[in-house]
Design brief:
alpha/beta, UDP-galactose 4-epimerase, domain 1, three-stranded mixed sheet, two-stranded parallel ribbon, 6 helices, 9 strands, elongated
Length: about 170
């Protein structure tokens, strides 16, 4: 930014989900994978869906359209609010970076139960604790963005319902 007199701000999103996601059975992320697995189990009248790990790790998720909204919000900030974010007056060497997320997390168990409900799977949910859990907690500090006036507007259940509708439209 200093060298070329530009005004670029990097954004760092938390885990994203939503329309256009990758629902591949072997290489998708947790939310699209759960949507697909619960949907397929529902169609097959399966008695149970097994999720890897204990279900206790916590993750933060942001609906993709909220991510887009946050980016537009930042791009439309007036100069007096945007320029200080660039850090041109600092000498700490840190890049201009803004975390984007919802500021709260939920356990994988809570997520799986919500996806199960949204999809309408009536079987049971089991966790295979012999499989890895990964990092116990991943939660971003979004206080700076919230203090500027932006917060995500899509609650988890509504976002999952929209993602499930996207899945149904894409994978008939």
């Amino acid at each position: 930014n200093r060298q070329y007199k530009t005004q670029y701000l990097a954004v760092m999103p938390t885990n994203l989900y939503g329309p256009g996601d990758n629902y591949h059975p072997e290489n998708s992320h947790v939310i699209p994978a759960l949507i697909r697995r619960f949907h397929e189990a529902k169609l097959a009248n399966a008695p149970c869906v097994t999720v890897w790990g204990s279900g206790t790790p916590k993750r933060e998720f942001l609906y993709s359209e909220d991510m887009a909204d946050a980016c537009v919000y930042l791009m439309n900030l007036p100069d007096e609010k945007f320029v200080p974010l660039l850090g041109q007056d600092r000498n700490d060497g840190l890049p201009p970076l803004m975390n984007i997320g919802v500021g709260h997390d939920l356990s994988i168990r809570e997520l799986a139960e919500t996806v199960k409900d949204v999809v309408g799977f009536e079987g049971t949910l089991e966790f295979d604790a012999s499989k890895p859990d990964g990092t116990p907690r991943k939660l971003m500090d979004v206080g700076r963005l919230n203090a500027m006036g932006w917060t995500a507007t899509t609650d988890m259940r509504s976002g999952l319902a929209a993602a499930y509708q996207d899945f149904l439209a894409a994978y008939k």
